[in-house]
Every structure is written in C-alpha cells, then in structure tokens.
Write a structure and sequence with these properties.
Strand order of the largest sheet: 1-4-5-13
Structural class: alpha/beta
Distance between the termini: 38 Å
Strand content: 5-15%
Helix content: 40-55%
CATH class of the largest domain: Alpha Beta
CATH topology of the largest domain: Pyrimidine Nucleoside Phosphorylase, Chain A, domain 2
CATH architecture of the largest domain: 3-Layer(aba) Sandwich
Bound molecules: uracil
Largest sheet: 4 strands, mixed
Number of strands: 13
Shape: globular
Amino acid sequence: MPEFIMASTFFPQDIIIRKRDGGALTKDEITFFARGVVDGTFADYQATALLMAIFWRGMTAQETAWLTDAMLHSGEVIDLRDIPDAKVDKHSTGGVGDKVSLILAPLAAACGLKVPMMSGRGLGHTGGTLDKLEAIPGFKVQLTVPEFRAILQKVGCAMIGQTPQVVPADRKLYSLRDVTGTVECIPLICASIMSKKLAEGIDSLVLDVKFGKGAFMKSKERALELARAMVETGRAAGKPVLAQLTAMNQPLGRAAGHTTEVIESIECLKGRGPADLMEVTFALTGHMLVLGGVAKDRKEAQAKMDTAIANGSALQKFREMCTAQGGDPRVVDDYKILPTAKKLIAVKAPANAKGFVSEVDALKCGHAIMALGGGRASVSDKIDHAVGLAELIKIGEAVSPSTLLCTLHSNDDAKAARADVSAIASVKAEALIREAIKFTPTPPKLEPLIQDLIQ
Ligand code: URA
C-alpha cells in the first residue's frame, strides 16, 4: 500500500487510547506519530497525551527501536560513507565538570578515527559541550553539514550543534516533554539520544551513562536500564554500541564552568590531567579505538593514546579543530585569551577542619556555578563563560585548617553595597560549596568511578 494511504488511515486518538490502555503500538502507528508531530497531523495536545501514556505504560524494545528509527528519518541523515576511516562518536548523559568530549575528540582523531560530534548546550546544573567550546574566542559551533563534513575529513574531528534539518521530531518532542513532565522516561530518552547520534552518520558509538547526585539519572539501576535500552536500540539499527556506567557524585576533574573546563581539557592534552578525568577519558576513547578497529584491544589502545599525548599530536588536533572552526588556536599556549573572571575567591577549610573529604556534592557544585552566572535555568538564558570553579578538592583528600577547597572565579561586584549580602552571587556560591563539601575523621571508602560496561 502506498505510504500516504497507509498514513491517512490512522487517527491520533486511537493510538493514544491503545497506549493509554497498555497496548503495544505498531511500526506504522509510531511512524505516523513521529512524522505527524513535524507536519502537524499529530496536534501538540495529542502528542503530549501520547507522551504521557508512554511515560506511564512504557514501550517494548521493539517499539523503542521503531520510534528511534522514525525520529531519525524525520529529517536529514548525514551520509559519511565517502569519508575514509571509521566514524565513531561518544555521547555522555552529562554531569558536572564532564569535559571529556573536549579531550576525547582530538585524542581519538590523533589515533586515527574520525569523530563526527554533534553536542548540546547546558541546561540546569549540568554544563554543555557547545557552551564550553564557545568560551574559545571565535569558535563557531553552528556549522552547515558541508562545513562539518569538510572539517571532519581534514582534521579528523568536528564538534558542532545540531543543525535544524537533523531529527526535527526530537526538537518538537523534547520541547513538549520539557513542559509536560515527560522527560524522565527511558524509552523516550533512549529514542531522543539515539536518533540524534545515528543521524550523524556514525559507524559505532560509545556511551557514558552517568548516575549519582550530579547526573540526570540518580540511581545506578535506572542508569543501567537506560544503558541497556540504548545498546539494544543501537544493535537494532545495525550499529555497534557500548555503554559505560560512571559515578557522578562528585564533579569530574577539578574544574567546572566554561573557561575553567577548557583550561583543564588542554592541560589533559598536555599530559597534566587529573587522575579521575583521565581515567574516564582513556576508558571511553579506548573503547572507541577498539570499536573503530584502530586498536586490537584496550592495551594497544592505551599505548596509542599515551603516544598521542606524549608526542603532542592530540594537542595539535585540538589546535587544528580550533582553527578550522574559527577559534583562536593560541588558546593552547595562552589561557589569558579566554574570558577571565574579575575576581578569584579562595574557599578554604574552616579553622576546626581535620581529617578527609568524604563528599563533594556535584549537584550543589552545579548550583554554585549557576549562582555565579555560569548556567542556564531556561534555554534562552545567557551564560557567563568566565565564571566557575577551579582547584576543587576531591573525595579522600586530607584537610586541615585553611586547606584550599576550591577557587571561585566570579564576576560579581561584591563591593556594591546591598542590603542582603546573601544575595551576592559569590556569597551564594561560596555557601553552596561549603554545603557541598563534607569531612570525616578517617579516610572514606572510595567508590569506583567506572562501575559497569554494557555491550
Ligand atoms: N538528552 C537528550 O538528548 N534527550 C533526552 O530525552 C534526555 C537527555
């Protein structure tokens, strides 16, 4: 039967009722839905009713795979088959201080992969890769698909925002979910993430699914469920997908914000990265190198990554990507080129502090960055790239009176007399950091950072 006749035989209300009553939808019904939200045949009020029905009733793995496929084909699917080398990407469900993409993309490119990365902006307490890149003067993240392809081919990695032509169904559905309490639904999250990643034209994908205080998924069980759903959906689309489960109770690395994270990322590429950040970066990049066939196993992958950092080729890829995307490559050697905060405030341990750090609450750290003006409460908010946290202490480290807990990079004018001192941004941020960091007299048990691998 021709497709247009098939599509016109459905009524949105029948589809909503079947899902409301716990039934499974057919491939054609799901395709009708994904197309309908873009062309208007499925009205917003009907789409939100169906989203809420899916939220409560769930979707089978088969329905989720069909939804992903229908969303993927609601717009342009980038075809990179003419570009040689394996095209492998990484996606993280996000957290505080998660700047892995900025290190991983040039590192993987230096090791022989092509990394076509379409990323998002930060919302709420978690930062976004595009915002971090935009801290680099001139760096353009809104490129056309031909520009993206050209940079990918020449440099080996390109990091851009979603183009309007890619997965328009997700743009529509995500905006409806955001205002109707239907974001936290595993089949919908899975279809949203996987449709966008598959639209990049990748051969394979590595996922970093975070769980804990600073993550979207608070519990490990829910993170595992999402990881399994995404790996299965990738398999249904014929692409090898592997998911790593990573704890996100404390921020990753010692910096969080934009300028501060760009600096920490460049330091990593110079071989001076903090241990936790390098552990996650090496694990994810290592999986990419094996999936992409440029290393036979993780051991060989590690040797390649060590060489790319030691001989400067990963750092050089970062420079080349900056240049290709309009950014100032001198940033690599001169951090003063980045937006700089007016004030650095040292937050020190109190006079009675003795023992070890037992907690650095990532959510509260994220809220401290927001208080400084470095986060968005809503998508249209402007952010200050210069503000953030640096030199953040880590769980397990020893403290005594005056140990540095963190440096706040602030742009507020605390001198301006205000009746309510607690309303001053840096005062609020410092209070949040002090709430975030807890001490214990004996060394705490450290939880492993990488906790599972789903493949
Ligand atoms: N990120 C996405 O891209 N989609 C979701 O649904 C949730 C997080």
